[in-house]
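Open question from group meeting: does this chain pack into something compact, or does most of it stay loose? Before anyone orders reagents, we agreed to write out a predicted structure and look at it together. Recording both the input and the output here so the notebook holds the full record.
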Amino acid sequence: MNIDDNEVTFENAWGVCDGDIYRQVIVEVDETYETGRPFFDFIMTTSNHKPFTYPDKNIDIPSDTGRLGAIKYTDYAIGEFLKEAKTKPWYSSTVFIIMSNHCASSAGRW
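Structure tokens returned:
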């Protein structure tokens, strides 16, 4: 995936914010769908990681104030992604799987 600098609305310590990633995925899936080829996308959200920074304008918890805001922003970004995806012709034949790779208290544990 390649996101042009002018398409980045917010960067955190991990990269671009979840909303920017999801918007780019929509663009790339649209392009692939037009070719008639099947597609697979793996998206890793990053906003829900320390230092818990994200765009301030989307939710009511200020950025850089802790995990709760990061979770709420991540949820918001996923919701916006799914709303946009529902408007696409490929939506009805696409499987979306959303999962976590760990929980908040798993650091240093098996």
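Observations to bring back to the group:
The longest strand covers residues 11-12.
The first helix runs from residue 18 to 35.
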